[in-house]
Design a protein that fits this description.
Layout (H helix, E strand, L loop, with lengths): L1 E6 L3 H9 L5 E7 L3 E3 L4 H5 L9 E3 H4 L6 E5 L2 E5 L4 E4 L4 E3 L2 E4 L3 E3 L17 H20 L3 H7 L1 E5 L3 H17 L13 E5 L11 H13 L2 E4 L3 E6 L2 E5 L4 E5 L2 E4 L3 E3 L2 H9 L9 E2 L5 E2 L2 E6 L4 E2 L12 H19 L14 E6 L2 E6 L2 E4 L1 H14 L3 H17 L30
Parallel strand pairs: 1-2, 1-9, 2-5, 9-21, 11-12, 11-17, 12-13, 19-22
Antiparallel strand pairs: 3-4, 6-7, 7-8, 10-18, 14-15, 15-16, 20-21, 23-24, 24-25
Helix pairs in contact: 1-9, 4-5
Length: about 450
């Protein structure tokens, strides 16, 4: 039976596997995590609105009814294109007749990888819980701080990158300061927090129409977020961020910096290219043919963020979930058509629109020729995200959480986990207390 190996359990890989559920093939899904993560809602974990388990589902559970599919917990570290084998980190080799690689992206710091320590990105559950810890700990540290400049630095949050992730994070952070934590402290007023969104280009949400970009900026400013456009970040340290403009350079004292400015294709792109001779784009993605396969290797498909698909409009397709979903499904159907000796049409991306949420009843949406912002866009965003969440239980839990948060202005997952500065590790045993006898 034809062997299909899928590397990556994200949107592209998972939808490829689901599309093969009735096909006469043997499917093997390989991922280094045992769960599928709904990345568009990671920022809600990072801001305490949702818990990690509410936006993730075990891959085995999702595919348990597919008798032609097995799931392997492992990490691809090599490829033998001649032998048609995927090499895993533990040395195991998994043979394939068709291979679908959907490995996604990682954070990109434009050559300044040392910034990651002070400015975490948002690509994984661990990133989200780390950001949540830093945000909540900043308010806790400010509550205890007596030095005014240092307290102000603790209450200053800088977000680098004005795309959807940066806008969504800054909007949620403003709601935490203005609503969620408003009455929780005694020495500070969380509403005094300074939230600064820095964008290197001329405006935030540059991929959206200009009217929606302006609408989003207006809402953010109303929430107290300061947007800084055309500013290039040149340094990130423990004490803050340096931003360079055309005529000046400005240092922003801030203890909390979050990164949402750039991503780069997974390192698997280079591994595949080295073995197949495929061309690699500047961002590390693999240049693919009109059918999403690699030139000279029609049995290898690259889908999602790892693929550089320029056959529709001349520019690479955007790195959004819909591209990965549609390409993963297309690759799976192409494999089946080849087995039946049926003709295969080139991949064509159907753009279903762009969405970005800014806060309660505030979002922007571009759907075809129509632009929406405000409450209508927010309800569209709500419906779309509930629709694409994997698992009925997840949808119901998230919907109830959102309803609770909407009416109470609360965020139920406000947990500080992991080591924090100045405090012992959570697992450390407390020092024994000795009482003097009388």
């Amino acid at each position: 039976m034809h062997r299909v190996v899928i590397v990556g359990g994200g949107f592209g890989g998972l939808n490829a596997a689901l599309a093969l559920r009735k096909a006469p093939v043997e499917v093997t899904v390989i991922d280094r995590r045992n769960f599928h993560l709904f990345q568009p809602l990671l920022y809600q974990v990072a801001t305490g609105a949702l818990s990690p388990g509410e936006i993730a589902s075990p891959i085995r559970n999702i595919l348990h009814a597919q008798k032609n599919t097995r799931v392997l917990l492992g990490e691809m570290c090599g490829l033998d294109a001649n032998a048609r084998e995927v090499i895993l980190a533990d040395g195991e080799r998994v043979g394939y007749d068709s291979l679908i690689v959907a490995a996604g992206t990682v954070d990109f710091y434009f050559g300044h990888d040392d910034w990651k320590k002070n400015a975490p990105g948002l690509k994984s559950i661990e990133d989200a819980t780390e950001i949540r810890k830093r945000i909540l700990f900043a308010f806790e540290a400010a509550e205890r701080e007596t030095d005014v400049p240092t307290r102000r630095a603790w209450l200053t949050f800088v977000l680098v990158g004005g795309g959807p992730t940066g806008v969504e994070l800054s909007g949620a952070l403003a709601e935490i300061a203005n609503d969620t934590l408003r009455h929780d402290f005694r020495s500070i007023d969380p509403r005094d927090a300074a939230i600064i969104l820095v964008e290197g280009k001329g405006r935030i949400l540059e991929t959206f129409p200009e009217d929606l970009s302006k609408a989003a900026e207006t809402v953010l400013q109303r929430k107290g977020v300061k947007t800084v456009a055309s500013g290039q970040v040149t340094q990130i340290t423990d004490d803050g961020v340096t931003v360079k403009f055309k005529d000046r350079e400005e240092k922003i004292a801030a203890k909390t910096v979050l990164w949402a400015a750039g991503v780069r294709a997974s390192g698997l792109g280079k591994i595949v290219a080295d073995q197949t001779g495929a061309q690699v784009a500047k961002n590390g993605s693999v240049v693919v043919e009109p059918d999403c396969s690699i030139k000279g290797h029609p049995e290898i498909f690259i889908v999602g963020d790892l693929a550089s698909f320029t056959h529709q409009g001349g520019k690479p397709l955007p790195g959004v979930a819909q591209v990965a979903i549609q390409q993963g499904t297309y690759a799976a159907k192409t494999i089946v058509k080849r087995l039946k000796n049926e003709p295969v049409k080139p991949f064509h991306y159907w753009d279903k629109g762009n969405l970005a949420v800014i806060g309660r009843l505030a979002a922007v949406a571009q759907i075809g020729r129509f632009d929406f912002h405000g409450a209508l866009a927010w309800f569209i965003w709500l419906f779309v995200h509930i629709l694409y969440l994997v698992g009925f239980e997840n949808r119901m839990v998230v919907l109830m959480e959102w309803a609770f948060n909407y009416f109470t202005h609360n965020r139920s997952a406000r947990l500080i986990t992991g080591p924090t500065p100045g405090l012992p590790a959570p697992s450390a045993e407390p020092e024994p207390v000795t009482y003097a006898s009388h």
